[in-house]
Amino acid sequence: MAHQITLIPGDGIGPEVAEATVRAVEATGAAIDWERVTAAPGELDEVFASLEVTRVGLKGPTATPIAGGHQSINVALRKKLGLYTNFRPVRMLPGLKTRFHDLPLNLAIFRENTEDLYSGLEHEVVPGVVESLKVITHNASMKIARSAFEWSRRESRRKVTAIHKANIMKLSDGLFLKCCREVASHYPQIQYTELIVDNACMQLVMRPEQFDVLVLPNLYGDIISDLAAGLVGGLGIVPGANIGDHHAVFEAVHGTAPDIAGKGLANPTALMQSAVLMLFHLGERDAAARLEQAIYQVYAENRHLTGDVGGKASTSEFTSAVIGHL
Ligand code: ATP
């Protein structure tokens, strides 16, 4: 029976990379019925109704206005569906020349996805003074720590690093660390270390190969994800998965990239690799592995790459090259 999947093309380059990804997934032969829905600010009923049935979504980036305007659609989805794990595997692609291409980078980022400074609780105390509430709970911190360690155990990973600023935010980041330590104590075979976020940034740029699995509260996870994407060739590459107990929504790390939207220049690799994660999640292991290998082959050949990774190909030329290898 075909898998029903909610497809949210999104804004900016979203529809272009979503269309490319649908073409590639269809070429794997995996039986999928796409239910296309639009995510508009304040009008997410259709999205939630579809995900209620399908339980699995593939999503392009959605625009979030800066300093004002509507709440982020991503934040709304993650909170409402309890998608507490944001998983972002950051890997070097074969043949792609980056500053670090000699290093076998293979990081896994576990970003808490529902709270922290994304609580959206901000107010003006008096004119000229505003407060934003950083909410850290035992419950959400335990969940993300368990996700990170459980995945690491399954995948035989050797080290988990918790990233924090508990020297300054002693209570909130302190609670996050306490939870990570508690979970770590149940996985004696996995090395557990902690690093303050500013130092983590420096270490990631100077010696990224020392890292394996990272677990972070929401905001540090957002920032470190973009930094890590930069190590392996940029935002056009890195996939992501938002996972809860009942639903999963797969989406790239990148945003709407308005500078290149509508020009056929966007790199669909990040969403295609998100679709690889989705196919594994659906149990379509063969289709997932073949799509992943097809993407790797196009990179290894280095002839049909998009501009962001040093090539000249359009979104659709890259996609056809991937399909050619399926
Ligand atoms: P947001 O604020 O919406 O999360 P972001 O900070 O992740 O967005 P983006 O808009 O995704 O930022 O991307 C920053 C820049 O990276 C873009 O302007 C674009 O030049 C480049 N970029 C991002 N995604 C892609 C892609 N898929 N293909 C090519 N270039 C990309």
Describe the overall structure.
The chain is α/β, with parallel strands linked by helices. The protein folds into two domains: 1-95 and 232-326, Isopropylmalate Dehydrogenase, CATH 3.40.718.10; 106-230, Isopropylmalate Dehydrogenase, CATH 3.40.718. The protein has ten helices and twelve strands. It has helices spanning 14-27, 45-54, 73-80, 138-154, 172-184, 197-206, 218-231, 269-281, 285-301, 315-324; strands at 3-8, 32-36, 56-59, 85-91, 106-112, 122-126, 129-132, 159-164, 191-196, 213-216, 241-243, 248-251. A ten-stranded mixed sheet has the order 2-1-3-12-11-4-5-10-8-9, sandwiched between helices. α1 crosses α8 (269-281) and α6 runs parallel beside α7 (218-231). The longest helix is centred in the middle third of the chain and has 17 residues, at 138-154. It is globular, with a radius of gyration of 19 Å. Residues 13, 17, 61, 235-236, 254-257, 259-260, 266-267, 270, 308 line the site of adenosine-5'-triphosphate.
Q: What compounds are bound to the protein?
A: adenosine-5'-triphosphate
- The best one-word shape is globular
The span between the termini is 22 Å
CATH topology of the largest domain: Isopropylmalate Dehydrogenase
Low-confidence stretches: none
Order of secondary-structure elements: EHEHEHEEEEHEHEHEHEEHHH
State the major sheet. 10 strands, mixed
The helical percent reads 25-40%
Mean pLDDT over the residues? 96
Kindly list the characteristics that best describe this protein.
326 residues; 10 helices; 39% helix; 10-stranded mixed beta sheet; alpha/beta; Isopropylmalate Dehydrogenase; binds adenosine-5'-triphosphate
